[in-house]
Amino acid sequence: MIAALAPFHFERPLWLLALIPAAALWLLTHRSADMLVKWRRVIDPALLPHLVDGETRPAIVSPANALALAWLLVTIAVAGPAWQREPSPFAQAKPPVTIVLKVTPSMLTQDLAPTRLDRARQKLADILAAREGAAASLIAYSGSSHLVLPPTADSAVVLDLAKSLSPEIMPLEGDDLAGALALARRVLAGMDDAGSVLIMADTATPQAAPGHSGGGSAVTILSLLAPGSEAGGLPEIAKALDATLIETTVDQADVTEIVRRLDRADQLGSVAGEGQHWREAGYWLTPLIALLALLWFRRGWVLP
To answer: Which segments constitute the VWFA domain (predicted)?
Structure first.
């Protein structure tokens, strides 16, 4: 038992300073309620025991004592007593991902039925379903890059907006992959946890190659081309970014590999709490505090 309590401490020890005014108030109230103290001011101490009849000291169960005890228990509870550790509720949280989706006329090619863009949406739905609860943001790019949705854990919203994207609504034609990646890094930089970038594109031009590598964020590229097709420019982009290039498959093999990389263990090191945190036990005092509070509903407790 003693060994188990060895790590005992308070998470918020400064709250214990609230016991100082509580002690001062109790002493003041206790002294003012002692009738012997009052009579000593007017009666000779040698005669006082013979002249005062009956119980003159305040009762043990009194409003002042009950208030002092309640104050003590509340202060201890708020200070956060703890001596055991437990897994953090955030320890299993999956790192966020920024989806970079190419939205150009080439994505309407039907070599991946119904179209490359539709297949990208289907794969995106499977990826988000496998990472339920993880934050995801969406960026669309063609000749310019645009943040469609900031990080959110609502996968349904991400999919709805992805379904609304088409080449017709993009302001410029082209291949601004470098701008999309820069925007993705800015989105991830605004989050507390480490995250990844998932590029969903069919091809990339040499001019789209970023001027530097991934900038600290892991990058995965899903090639939206029919199996056996030339992945125009994507291998070069992957090499420049030190990224992983994954070919689209007719089954879930590509989704499984992407999810594995997005959830890789080395990204969990930045999650708050580092896997465990102290379990506070102050809430166990709540029933005692509630019972003491019931005394103030008793008739004649404070005023006779």
So the answer is: 98-202
